[in-house]
TrEMBL record:
TM annotation in the entry: none
ABC transporter domain mapped to chain residues: 2-227
Keyword Nucleotide-binding (UniProt): yes
Protein's recorded name: ATP-binding cassette domain-containing protein
């Protein structure tokens, strides 16, 4: 379990993390989402004691990282700028970590297998592809068999097979009862794997929610219905929590709050012919963007085209 209370980090004038309060629970994958520069990496660095909070606290398993006697067994982390000696083999890198943390050699072999590194374990890590480097970083994070696993942008730059592998791994780690905290700026990716979402923008908490609630709050699914008598159908469908829009006289209505099946049933019961019944899923990417729009640090600007001299 990770608990942040009024967690704040300032770099001079810049407030990177601004009074964050959140709890990451075991047994589920929690996505940590926000646009670039939102403060995700800074928060994660504070969780593992690589940066000190300006104020507030963050604990893992009820204690600050530095207070754990064997931190690698408590939290395994893959942070963005992982420094691995390029001349060392993957095996030697993991062995050095294991040796300095009292972890048996057997466990090194286990994580090499778990992360699919068997064939390259004796190769220098400097020659690794991005995907292999990520796997090595994850192997190091899992070495201490930690109750909490924290990964910063683990799918960045990975090919589809690597992305799928990470997805399955995260689900498996959560199913084993671990606390799994994963950052990303890609809503679509997180929606596939995370149950719980913590969304930040400009260092502040924007939402502490679930994928399901986010969809509902974004307006839920909309159904487009075209019928022989849209005025009568509108009256029949109307009710609390239901939003119906459509031009007077048009055969098309746009309905939020009812499923296509419910609308079709009402129409059939009243003998109204339907010409179209289309369900539109709300885009999670849209929901995320509308939530974080105000907090995006770097908006793209379009330069006016220069005329040729
Ligand atoms: N060491 C530092 N000194 C000064 N400013 C910093 C430092 N580290 C981070 N920042 C600033 O703090 C803010 C938050 O940065 P952070 O890297 O935590 O965001 P992020 O959400 O991880 O972004 P990204 O998705 O781009 O990795 C940014 O504006 C960044 O420029």
């Amino acid at each position: 379990m990770i608990e942040a209370r009024q967690l704040t980090k300032r770099y001079g004038e810049k407030t990177a993390v601004d009074g964050l309060d959140f709890t990451v629970r075991p047994g589920a994958v929690t996505g940590f989402l926000g646009p670039n520069g939102a403060g995700k990496s800074t928060t994660m660095r504070m969780i593992v004691g690589l940066d000190a909070p300006t104020s507030g606290t963050v604990t893992v398993g009820g204690r600050r990282y530095a207070e754990h006697t064997s931190p690698l067994q408590e939290v395994g982390a893959l942070l963005e700028a992982k420094s691995i000696h390029p001349g060392r083999t993957a095996f030697d890198h993991l062995m050095a970590l294991a040796y300095t943390h009292g972890i048996p050699k057997r466990r090194v072999h286990e994580v090499i297998e778990q992360t699919g590194l068997q064939s390259v374990a004796r190769k220098r890590s400097g020659a690794f592809s991005l995907g292999m480097g990520q796997r090595l970083g994850i192997a190091a994070a899992l070495l201490g068999d930690p109750a909490t696993v924290m990964l910063d942008e683990p799918v960045n730059g990975l090919d589809p097979e690597g992305v799928l592998w990470i997805r399955n791994l995260l689900t498996q780690l959560a199913a084993e009862g671990r606390t799994v905290f994963v950052s990303s700026h890609l809503m679509s990716e997180m929606a596939l794997v995370a149950e719980h979402l913590i969304i930040v923008g400009r260092g502040r908490l924007l939402a502490d929610t679930t994928v399901e609630t986010l969809v509902r709050d974004a307006g839920g699914d909309t159904v487009t219905v075209a019928s022989a008598d849209s005025a009568r159908l509108r009256d029949l469908l109307n009710g609390p929590g239901i939003l119906i829009t459509g031009q007077p006289g048009s055969e098309h209505l746009s309905v939020t709050g009812l499923s296509g099946r419910q609308i079709g049933t009402v129409a059939a019961e009243h003998g109204i012919a339907l010409y179209e019944l289309t369900q539109h899923r709300v885009s999670l990417e849209e929901a995320f963007m509308s939530l974080t729009r105000e907090s995006v640090e770097y908006h793209a600007s379009i330069q006016p085209a220069r005329s040729a001299a």
